Amino acid sequence: MNLEEKIASIVRMHGAEYYDSEIVSENGNRIFRVYITKEGGVDLELCADISVELSPFLDVHPPMQEAYYLEVSSPGIERELKKASHFMKSIGEKVRVKLRNGEKLKGDILCADENGISIDRDGERVDIDYCEIKKARTCFDW
Questions:
Q1: What is the pTM of this model?
Q2: CATH assignment of the domain containing 92
């Protein structure tokens, strides 16, 4: 079992789902950020409980060589979509997509599978393979 699978297993034990993780530098500190989702939403108590359980595991299986801070949080309502599973769980949501050729699209995700997505852009269906996507993010009209 790799690191990501073990983290996902710990997260599932708390009734949540592992979404993604990232390593970032902020204010001179390295942060290992674990994103989780849960039907009905993620609250601070859930993040704290998962963090308490992940911390000793990551002490033995560190995600990086240097010192870091662990953060557990929700990916937010406007979240980055990187994996096919992210797109599949976002069907029906509005998304902004930047393609590798520089084109930018915005529309609702109609469907998604292991190969790509289809979005409704102003009544027009646009099919996009994942290999064409440079960056994608859900967007919420406030």
A1: 0.82
A2: 2.30.30.100
